[in-house]
Amino acid sequence: VASSRALLFLAATAFAQTPPALKIIETRCAGCHSPANKQSGLDLTTRDMALRGGDRGPAIVPNKSQESFLFQVISHTAKPAMPKFGAKLSDAEIQTVAQWIDEGAPWSNITKAAVPKHWAYQKPIKQTPPPGPVNPIDALIAAKHQQLKLTPVGPADPHTLIRRAYLDLLGVPPTSAETALFLKDQNFPAAIDRLLADRRYGERWGRHWMDIWRYSDWYGYNAEIRNSQKHIWRWRDWIVESLNNDKPYDRMIVEMLAGDEVAPADPDTVRATGFLARNYSKFDRDGWMQDAVDHTALAFLGTTVKCARCHDHKYDPISQEEYYRFRAFFEPYDVRTDRVPGEVDTGKDGLARIYDGMADKPTYLYIRGNLQNPDKTPLTPGIPANLGAPPLAKIEPVTLPLPAYYPDHRAAVHQDLLAQAQAATEGSGPEPTSQNTHLAKLSLEAAQAELPALQARIAAENAKYGDPPDPKYEDLAATARELERKAGILRGREAVARAQIELETAINTPDPKTKKADEKKIAEAQKKLAQATTALTLPATGYTPIGKEYPQRSTGRRTALANWIASKDNPLTARVAVNHIWARHFGQPLVSTVFDFGRNGKAPTNPQLLDYLAAEFMDHGWSMKKLHKLILTSAAYQRQSTAGAQPHPNQKIDPENIALWRMNPRRLEAEAVRDSILAVAGDLDLARGGPNLDPAKGFTSTRRSLYFTHNPDSQMEFLKTFDNPNPTECYLRNESVVPQQALALANSELSLNQAKRLAPKLTNEDFIGQAFETILSRPPTAEERHLANKFLDATANQTQARADFVHALFNHHDFVTIR
Amino acid sequence: MTHSKPTRNRREFLTDAFCGIGSLAFGAMLQAETVNPLAAKKPHQPAKAKSIIFLFMAGGPSQMETFDPKPLLNKLNGEPLPPSFRPAKRQFINGTPKLLGTKRTFKQHGQSGLWVSDLLPHTATCVDDLAVIRSCTADAFIHSSAQYQLFTGRVIPGFPSMGSWAVYGLGSESQSLPGYVVMPDPFGTIEAGQPVYSNAFLPAVYQPNIFRGGRKPVLNLEMPEGVTLAQRKNTLNFIRELDQATMTPDDDEFSARLSTYDLAFRMQTEAPAVFDLSNEPEHIRNLYGMDKPDTDDYGRRCLMARRLVEKGVRCVTVVSGGPAISQWDAHDDIEENHLRMAARVDQPIAALLKDLKQRGLLESTLVVWGGEFGRTPEAQSSKGRDHNNTGFTMWMAGGGIKGGVAEGATDDVGLYATENPHHLRDIHTTILHQLGLEQDSLNYLHQGRRERLTEVQGEVIRGIV
Description:
- Chain A has 819 residues and is mainly alpha-helical.
- Chain A is 49% helix and 4% strand.
- Chain B is 30% helix and 17% strand.
- In chain B, the strands form five sheets. In chain B, strands 1, 4, 5, 6, 7, 8, 11, 12 and 15 form a nine-stranded mixed beta sheet that branches. In chain B, strands 2-3 form a two-stranded antiparallel sheet.
- In chain B, helix 10 packs parallel to helix 11 (334-358).
- The model of chain B is unreliable at 1-35 (pLDDT under 50).
């Protein structure tokens, strides 16, 4: 609040120096001719825009008032007479404007300076926290409390606290042993260190960032990929690993946007570009580009650039041209799948990634966003200039190393191909029949010829791409050509034989039911036969390269963009990230519009705290783990989540708990509900990473939930019920309480089976106590113990009663809540 | 375009998601202003229809074989499109295609004398209740994009379907059934996939309940095997007692969860009876064609649709057509495809209209029929038809729609909508209008923009309301 008052003062000072003519323009013209309204295409809020003019041409010709359209319309010597609304300007006013134009139309950026600069476009200021509490977070929150006369509630009891930390950082509750370990010394900072070093942390927080970064497995129509990419799970694994390794957030941004440029020879880094590969859309390149633009800005900058696709942004300083210049960073990129060691078929496994495949593709501004109506002036890449960030660094094209532009020219790929060819010569076909013995023989002969041909092709390629190239290349290429041709002829013979057999079979065994299909088959077989026969007679023109070669240079555009975003001088990046992290610890962000820090978004509830966290984050190398620890060691994080059984005076002052006088209880996220049900019974499979799993197996597989296929077409039903993220976009989860959740917990196979599995494992004499500690991480109260005894005693069959009891605890509100 | 400040915050959302069903058991604990997002809401304007049943013919049925007779097309059979007609871009047809006459015979039916072909003899008996819109247009001629547009108003995924919009705008009349139900074709998922039905960015309470095939259409609704009602009641009581033992008065979410268990129990005891079609008398089941293999499946789903709207379900989509050749996508042979597809749905659809009418439900139920586009008058290969988004037919019935009316027209071969063309936006606007919803008022603030079903202004089709 204090800082905005200072800005108003500055603005007032600027206003005092404003030429009177500008004051007239501001009060009488700029209402309609503003960046937001732009009537007749004209914006009169800056000199540049006024000189550029609108649909009717420039508004001002400096030093020449008579030739200036602005003067002509306000003096009613030209149409349309202006101002359109209200009285004509007085003669004195018209004279003031004319004189000002004749003086060269000096501008003091009134209209810009008059609006206080938006908070999010200024660098975060790290204030020295007020003296008092040790943790600066508490000092900054205490200031709010004092201001509002709030008395914070006391700390949570150790059982609640350790459960909170486990669910929060790992997504599963502590085991009884883990709870006991903490209770021994109650050293919470040490417990936090243990949890942050636990690799389950990466899975828990990986899922959070997968929400924000729009993780989606591929989907399409049958086997056809129409959206996202196959094997995009490698990007998911990159996210999990990066978090566990505490990779600096600024580096993560760079790798996701430009991993192919900054570490082109390192497939582990290139995985990160799944962030952009995910936007792939088979039928809609423009939509693909829109997603890349919009979601890069939403995720990293908390900025809704998408409004500027059709017109200048109505709230934020982003012109339509700037929108398309931002798009130009992405215009050249395309997707591809590289081979990975051990699998030659990229349909089965591979590295989903991006690369600049269309370096020369121009970016056009679409007038009113209409694809049919491009302004054919190509736009160069650029960033919105008025977001308070420094200018973009020079874009330097990147020369790629050989394995990056020719990924199949890697020793591992060669080895895999040779192994495959070798295996083919060792032939293990079906049991021979008279027909396929002949075929098998031909096939084996072809395979035996293909192996040396492949070896020769690889030798030729090695010569060609050697550094320096091997002068024997021509000879090697000739050998490869010859061997390949021989192998081709043999393979051709096999094809002819196969086609002949198919043809005969189809002709000899007419079946009225399949007549139509058979006719088709016959036609196809005849065609194949003809093709195969022709192929035998064709001369070989060259050997077939081992794989596809891609461009040797990348534009470097995305690297420049990534560095601009990941800069300490960008006022948005760190703020947006810490706000996301804070939201997931406190169940409530500091800026409630997590994706919109612009003028249409909400102001931070505690700007000093947000700025402090952002500055601290950057000062400590963008380390998320350090930030987690800073937050978790605050008294604010460790408070109890309830005001207690009696009405509390704070509830009147701050019912929404905006000032954080207590912790917010939160509903567990979908994945954590399922994982916890499995974990308490000791059944959660902690295998790491790997290909996405079939969501239909969600009740039989015990892998963590983040490993199951998640895309708009296919999600685990159980997770859907608990507000799992919308894979198209989810910057903050919804948190609903609906009867379907009760049905899922009461009736699903998962909770029933796990109850049956867990109950017999609880063998302590104090069954009730053990069940509470295992499932809810706390001992029962006397009343709960009494109720439990009553429930157990009511059923004769104790095996059944105990399973029912465990099942009931799964349905306890505390089980699905972070208290 | 209107922009305004978002108002949602966590707590609002919680009370939003509260479901207001606290009144059932724990009313005293809840604040009075708590809002149930699924409670029936007042429409923006007086409503003609309470519910909507969308009979979705996936793949795109042909207008020339159903409701839009084109005598000239038969005369020009085998000829190229005369130069007086404007040619159109198609997905598969290239070069100069030849026109393909229809083998179907058209007759006038009912008092209104509307034309229907012999492909749909049962539907033909209901024409006096139908408003046939012969001048529909859409933007896309690829299945997936066109299906997105038909359901969500946009050619790309990521926007809420009309069913979700309807429940968002009007809530649900039923406390024990989902507000928005989709019954897909058992042959499989349509080309655009499940996202066409989705709530997208609308809150999860407005999501479609996609019925699974078979006797248990809703997941987790049945009592688990071996658990009796008494046992379950006992467990639920225990859960409540335990929860109450540690509940504090400031925890809204806690009390909301308790109430959801009451509602869940109610759904569990009441809903399965609604899903059980064996309660219907034989003559009704036969009316829907459940006694014949061809019509059994679609008839079953149409009957279920009637039972659902009877109980206050807001929106039911009954899909005819799945992937590839199991849909109305007659590229190879229009006759083979449409005879096969029509034989499955014609009788059930007529039965649905008649059954709704005899129960007085047709007045308050808007029934909409159509695909994501129609088909070309030009032949693809020799006997098939390609996609046509420039002129095709849909119909509406009930819910305040005029019966026995033909709206708009295509040119003389059925290629372009020429008279009163109606973009899908107009269809959406009209559907909303009948439900008492106004396209601009029904909006949702999403990332700084007030999104609507119709995106840009659509118009109510005045000729049929």
